[in-house]
Amino acid sequence: MKYVIINGSPRRKNTCAVIKQIKTNLEGEFEEIYLQKEKIPLCVGCYNCIVKGEKYCPHFSQINPIVEKINDCDGIIIGSPVYAMNVTALLKNFFDHTAYLFHRPQFFTKKAIVVVTTAGAGHKKVANYIDETLRHWGVNKVYKIAMACGGKEHLETEPIDKVSKKFFKDLKSNKLHSPKFGDILFFDVWKAMANMDEPIKPDAEYWNETGLINEDFSPDVKLNFIKKGFSKLMFFILSKFIK
Ligand SMILES: Cc1cc2nc3c(=O)[nH]c(=O)nc-3n(C[C@H](O)[C@H](O)[C@H](O)COP(=O)(O)O)c2cc1C
Fold it and tell me: Within this chain, do residues 140 and 214 fall inside the same structural domain, yes or no?
């Protein structure tokens, strides 16, 4: 089993301690990325990744190796402390550089565990935000550990162990989860966008080359007939609306 760890904390304390504890419940190889060390410049808002293709991002040489590592792994571990009720700028900057993945989702077979630590507030909200972002990337299943560490001398290991054991069992099962209706809706939004008369070129290329343009969702993941019907209906409505 291969894991990639994306750590958005600028220091190696609470978030690191939780990740360290998670690792005790997992078996395999870990690739750790400390965004602080990567020194990725701020997204300049050039839109190149979206309209020309991700290779045209001025920071492609720093972003692409991380995306490749996610592509190569079985499990993603992604962490951030709460800063001013949100993720750190380090993690947000990385997410901004992956905006093209929202248009061209690709991690349909990946499962993730999100770690958020806080002094006292915002952890659930921030964990939900990271969950939402990963789902836009296409990630199949997201587990969450959101912990308030303020005023606590020792790490509460029990809730960490519980969630990480579930994550490991799920990874070993090799079974993919049925997507939520919201995930199907977004799949159809981007599919309809790629299918417009004048689509964004890299989006159209991606959706056609992967064959996803002809699917109700990633073929790696099974849909029951209700979800298939929902996807077809959404695509029909969105195609009309977008035109
Ligand atoms: C700049 C900054 C902003 C923070 N904002 C919040 C906040 O909005 N709410 C909160 O409860 N804790 C806040 N904290 C506390 C951290 O979220 C908390 O200590 C976290 O566990 C630190 O993780 P780390 O040890 O991995 O850096 C903030 C800390 C810093 C340095």
Answer: no
